[in-house]
Amino acid sequence: MAKRSTPKKQQANSQSSRRYKDFRNKARKRLLATTALSKCDKCGEARLSHTACGSCGYYKGRVVIDKSKAMDKITKVKA
To answer: Where is 59: in which H helix or E strand?
Structure first.
């Protein structure tokens, strides 16, 4: 284990809580900034900003993902 020096004076409770609150507020701001949701113009569902809508496939008023085609998932590999 790393040895740490002992503090010269006792830390005030208000200083400790202020430091913790500052860390908590910065973390909250980071989380809110990363998950910015916006409404889809076409269907009105929530989606991530600057990405195509997962339900209708539209982005900036045009079709990016064609949802009308049925996608068949490969579950087993035929031998």
So the answer is: strand 58-59
Widest distance between CA atoms in the chain: 74
| pTM for this model (two decimals) | 0.44
The 10s digit of each residue's pLDDT in 11-58 is 888 888 888 899 899 988 888 777 778 888 889 998 888 889 888 889
Please provide the DSSP assignment of 30-54 as one string: HHHHH--EEE-TTT--EEETTS--T
User: For residues 20 and 2, which has the higher predicted lDDT (pLDDT)?
Assistant: 20
Contacts of 64 (CB under 8 A, 6+ apart): 52, 57, 58
Q: Are 63 and 52 in contact (CB under 8 A)?
A: no
